[in-house]
Amino acid sequence: MSRVRFLAVGAAVLALAGCSADQTGQPKPETSSTAGTAAPTTTTSKFDAPPPVRPKVIKLDGVDPCAALTAAQLKQLKVATPVSKPLDVAKTGNPAPTCTSSSTGSQIFSYSVSLVVDRGVDLWQGSGNLDVSPAQVSGFSAFQIKLKGTSKGDCVVTVDVADGQQVFVQFLPIGDGFTQDQMCQNAKQGAEMALATLQTLK
């Protein structure tokens, strides 16, 4: 079975699991309920998020997401063949420029970097079937996001880089081989690398 097919199968499993994920396996905030519709029974962790901390402002407008990770960084992450395809990771109706790179070894996984320019990280403090916790990446305020009720999904680290803008990095494994902590460590590593490169582009 090809790697592409494996990725598609993994995404479908996440979608069918009933978790708050889109067709690519990415977690998403729960949309507001309409009149007469019950509120979701599962919500994200509640916390008072601190004011955003940014060592510098990194504007993402017009940036190629596939430029966020260099060839050397891709090799370090053990992925290759970046593919650019916009994804609506923030569910704003405006797909964000996204670059996905797939693994080169025996373990099958991918890293996706989305550059969201129309919604900040405060989006993830809403309701939904997500476990959201404050984090910090290279001195920038961030959130770690994973699906509730499973340790076999994925992990996202999304970083506040400017008002209304975020760098959304997803680590998505296919099959076993990674604990939830390892998934989140990998997502954070990808985010650290992307931030380091993005600061050289602007």
Automatic annotation (TrEMBL):
Polar residues bias locations: 21-30
Write out the entry's keywords from A to Z: Signal
Lineage: superkingdom: Bacteria
Check the UniProt entry and state the signal peptide residues, or none: 1-17
Q: Does the keyword NADP apply?
A: no
Record keyword Ubl conjugation present: no
Q: Which Pfam families match?
A: DUF3558
Disordered: annotated span: 21-53
Low complexity composition-biased segments? 31-45
Q: Which PROSITE patterns match?
A: PROKAR_LIPOPROTEIN
Instruction: Kindly provide the name given to this protein in its UniProt entry.
Output: DUF3558 domain-containing protein
Taxonomic source organism: Umezawaea endophytica
